[in-house]
Amino acid sequence: MDWFYKFPSMNDDTLRALKKMIDDGFREFTRAWGASIEGFFSPLQQFLIWAERFMTQTPWPIIILLILGIAWAGSRSVKIVLGCLFTLLAIGYFDMWTDTMRTISMIFVCTVLSIAIGLPLGIAMSHSNRVQRVVNPILDVMQTMPSFVYLIPVVMLLGIGRVPGLIAVVIYAIPPMIRLTNLGIRLVDRDVLEAADAFGSSGWQKLFKVQLPLALPTIMAGINQTIMMALAMVVIASMIGVQGLGQPVLKAIANQYFTLGIFNGMAIVGIAIIFDRISQAYGKRLQKHQEIAHG
């Protein structure tokens, strides 16, 4: 009756041999193609270095004015602008400015990359049920797989550093961008599309002048979620060399530095709230604008 209580599993030697074969195959692939893959991501590394230098070497008053300008352009809310100002001043006062700027530069590059990859994929999904059926299971796996697991193949291929961390963050954060782009375009009113067809619009004209503008509030929600998920991955990515607010948090966990962890954790929360409020307010403004236009 042992079979009833113990699940029948693969023989230990067979399982060990299977795991060894997979591990050896991946190592061989890494040795053969690792340098080429690293070279492929070299422009991404340069972009990340440029963004980090801009954020860390530009005088802090200019950075604050720039962020406040973006906050005002996106939200048109004095409360949000003042909230951003208070958060940034508090971060600087508690000596977390440089790490915060590194984190913001990482999130900026991740968001740009997620939009560049996620937007075309979402558009392709919205126009083809077959593409949607193929991509959806992949997105399900990406969203449910533990975030630590992303680090294993990336580190084996590219080693420790900023680019592997960036790739891991993008993989973790991109699914909402793809899903909500697809959803936003699919939710566009059929009557509007029929009117565009009646006026003789081509497929590209219909996409860029009708579907994408009408889907923009939903796409903004996708960008918002991508930013939030990228920030959530910052601490985990610090384990493989990503500089920023995640490294002091990791140091605090390892050495039981309570205040160091709390202060840097609050800084992450602060910039998350800034990004969230600005992107949400911009999304709501777009929605109101569309309602007035269609009203």
Automatic annotation (TrEMBL):
The keyword Cell membrane applies. InterPro entries: MetI-like, MetI-like_sf. CDD domains: TM_PBP2. GO terms for cellular component: ATP-binding cassette (ABC) transporter complex. The keyword Protein transport does not apply. It is found in: Cell membrane. GO terms for molecular function: amine transmembrane transporter activity; carnitine transmembrane transporter activity. It is a multi-pass membrane protein. The chain crosses the membrane at residues 80-97, 104-128, 148-174, 226-245, 257-275. One of its GO terms (biological process) is glycine betaine transport. Residues 100-279 form the ABC transmembrane type-1 domain. Keywords: Cell membrane, Membrane, Transmembrane, Transmembrane helix, Transport. Belongs to the binding-protein-dependent transport system permease family. This is Glycine betaine/proline transport system permease protein. It comes from Rhizobium skierniewicense.
